[in-house]
Amino acid sequence: MNGLDLINRINKVVSYIGILIAIVVFFYLLPFTFGELSGLSGISSSYLYFKIKMSYDLSYFFIILSLILIILSFLPLVFKNKISEGFDSDNNKYYYSVFSIYIAVLIFSSFVMELIDPAITVSKISTYKFGVQNFIYAVSSVFQVIILEFIPITVLTAIYLALTKNLKLLSLLNPYKYVKDVMFVFIIITASLSVFITNYNTYESILLYINTLILSYVYIKFGFLKSINISFVSSIIELSLVLFSSSLLSTVISLFLFVWAFLGFYTILIYYSGKSGNVNKKNAEKTDEQLKEEKNNEILSKIKKTDPEKLWIRSACPNCGNVEFKLNDDLSLQCSQCGETIDKDASGPYNIAINNNYIYRNNRN
Predict the structure, then answer these.
(1) Residues 6 or more apart from 134 whose CB is under 8 A from it?
(2) Which of 28, 91, 313, 357 has its CA 20 to 30 A from that of 67?
(3) Euclidean distance between CA atoms 31 and 29, whole angstroms
(4) Does 194 fall in a domain?
(5) How far apart are CA 24 and CA 262, in angstroms?
(6) Same domain, 47 and 153
(7) CATH number at residue 332
(8) Judgement on whether residues 222 and 108 belong to the same structural domain of the protein
């Protein structure tokens, strides 16, 4: 088992704990949420996208729809199939590592923003009853994915698939292998649109931009349900800190989040060190012939960039004494006067020198 697989298993265990905390808090507050739906008409429209005016029927619809999608987002914990696993089941084993990285980036960016502007931590949400707060955090986490990620990415994907003549239902539902070359372009466009749509202040826009970048990546890479799962869990854990602020549980959850964030940063370190190690391992596994071929190709590429007038030959033709040669593709030297060919192993690339001390010869007819 390599380091990345080991840290992914640890991330999975920690992510399960985070998911469990979110489930307990959400369903504990859910009866209060249904009991306080009639009071949702008084909440600020700034908490709802497009400043929707909330009514009892609309709030009931939103909470039911969110509840269905939240439950569906937990399917991968129970059932293992292509639908519950997301768009690309082969990559799902690293989903929990991305989850930890998301938590790490979220906490780090929030911490930095709080240092820049402490007032950003002050939120009117905390003045509402916990049932209303549960509604705001849960519904906004779901509709953020739908409005800010799902809709724009689906539109961009459909346009791209149409242009590449791959537009069909299967490719639209499973787009990763079709759009992976332009995936980061889609992600950047989507994150930029999220800032434009919400029109928050500078600091909140930066946080939203970072958040949307990662959630968009999760959506394309792992699927719609996984992006909802991450968004929901992180939002409800934030609510749990407020819910238990006057008890020891708040400290315990805070410590847990810092451990989770540390694992996220450590995962990044393991990933890049492992990637570097794989490159070194591949180089070590190369045969002498492969290394020699690579060296020859490097020499040839440098020859093509060099002015032929700056090339000169150290040795002379053993047949006629001529000092002008043509370098063949196999690095053998051919005398330009008598046609004598000198094998590359006999002459070697060191028979050709350039003013920067690289020794080789350009192909010339």
Answers:
(1) 25, 26, 29, 30, 32, 33, 236, 239
(2) 91
(3) 6
(4) yes
(5) 24
(6) yes
(7) 2.20.25
(8) yes
295-324 mean pLDDT: 61
Tokens standing for residue 363: 């192909």
Identify whether the C-beta of residue 126 lies closer than 8 Å to the C-beta of residue 242: yes
Cα 297 to chain centroid distance, Å, stands at 34
Cβ atoms of residues 216 and 153 within 8 Å? yes
User: Using N-to-C axis directions, what is the helix angle for 130-144 and 3-35, rounded to 10°?
Assistant: 130
Looking at the fold, whether 85 and 136 belong to one and the same domain comes out as yes
Specify if 288 maps to a domain: no
Q: Which residue range(s) make up the domain with 318?
A: 301-353
What the block records as the tokens of 1 is: 């088992």
Strand segments, DSSP code E, in the chain are: 312-313, 325-327, 333-335, 341-342, 352-353
Q: How would residue 329 be classed by pLDDT, with cut points 50, 70 and 90?
A: confident
- Does residue 21 contact residue 240 with C-beta atoms inside 8 Å? yes
Better-predicted residue by pLDDT, 203 or 50: 203
Q: Which two tokens stand for residue 106?
A: 């979220």
Q: What angle do CA 187, 193, 199 make, to 5 degrees?
A: 140
3-state secondary structure of 305: coil
Identify the domain boundary among 283, 311, 345: 283
pLDDT mean over 86-103: 74
Say how many domains are in the chain.
2
Locate 320 and state its tokens: 């006629």
360 within some domain: no
Alpha-carbon span 212 to 199, nearest angstrom: 14
